[in-house]
Write a structure and sequence with these properties.
The structure is a single chain. With about 450 residues, this protein is an alpha/beta fold. Helices cover about 45% and strands about 20% of the residues. A 6-stranded mixed sheet has the order 1-10-11-9-8-7, with helices on both faces.
Length: about 450
Amino acid sequence: MLKHRRRRTVLLACATQILVALLGLVAVVAWASPSTGNVPAAGPQTTPTQAEIAALLARQSGAMISRDRSRFAAGLDSSAAAAGFRDEQLAAFDNIADVPLASWAETIDSPVTATEAADAATARLDADATIVKVQLAYALRDVDAAPTLHSLWLTFVHRDGRTVISSDSDLADAAGASWHGLWDFGKVDAYRGASSLVLAHPKFAGLLTTYAGVVDRAVKAVTAVWGSGWTQEVAVVIPDTQAEMSAVIGNDLVLDQIDAVSVADVDNPEVGQLLGQRVVLNPANLEKLSDIGEQIVVRHEVTLIATRPTVGSQMPTWLIEGFAEYVANLGSGQTTTFAAAELRREIRAARLPKALPTSGDFNSENSRIAPVYEESWLACRYIAERAGEAGLLKFYRAVAAAIQAVPAATPDQAVTGALKSLLGLSTAQFVTQWSSYLRAQLS
């Protein structure tokens, strides 16, 4: 039986504000025409107006929901210069046909003045080009309580008196890379389970029902521990390649050590309100997982989805990930020495941890990431053995509440207070006892 490699789970918050922070090279301003620099005027066409662009986006959104391919195609640039983009957009329109969309809306976020990019687009397209940051808001039926939000950077021109879309990549080299969904990479098949929606390309179509079942069972298992106060609906995405996975999650993680990633938009990072929660599986590692490994990976990710709205953005990572591992391993049948084999090697070499893991220890490039997850898991399990599972839940929620209180405690202060209240221990005393527990369990 292949061992579940605990290091391979990550929670990402794909917040809009992260994109904004990266856009130092792109000026987002009040509505204005892009500078044409030294590029001569390109014929009689005028620059598309804000009203024209807004109306076009509304038509494209309506065509997507109504599955009107002709109407959708009419909004795309048919010139030779934009042929590649047009083909990609029509392919994506076809690829998404089986995805159960509850809504799809593209709206203007803000126009952009990026002189070099606008000049280059104008020259390439032989038409006055306007580049606009567009917000895509879409929702999956029965999964998303509210639409998930993503940024697109679209180029608009006039053709034959009409406003059309010519590109989504003119700012890709200036921190304006458009988000791409699974449908941008190929046909998407969908399968609806009792509490799950699984999306994959035909390559992994045979896994749709399998993972729907795994997720449905995970939802029940997580709810049995955490309670019913969460959506209990999970969307799972299975890309074909790691490159596609990076595009879908919007992050260039080192994926070799990761089995799955939970992603979400942080609508309000202070209270942890989430939109568009997805579990994205790493296609390169799917065949390496045993049935028990699949169960543990998915339960871990589902636990992150269930708990994330409670924890906010400052919760200690060891507690977030350790609790998810605690829930994931309940009833797995794996022995502690087997499930924590990497940490066991360190313990037997007399390398005991002297502190709880830091957030930096969970970097996907950390060669010690496996023992870090195992340390976190056994810290939470030690609390549960001392105070019961209800005590672990009380500890978890007490730390989250203290961090979100007014005035807020620091993460270290919150952990110290919860340990003192629940176990009567200081953090130093807890670390000492936890280290002894690790030695007893693993040496």
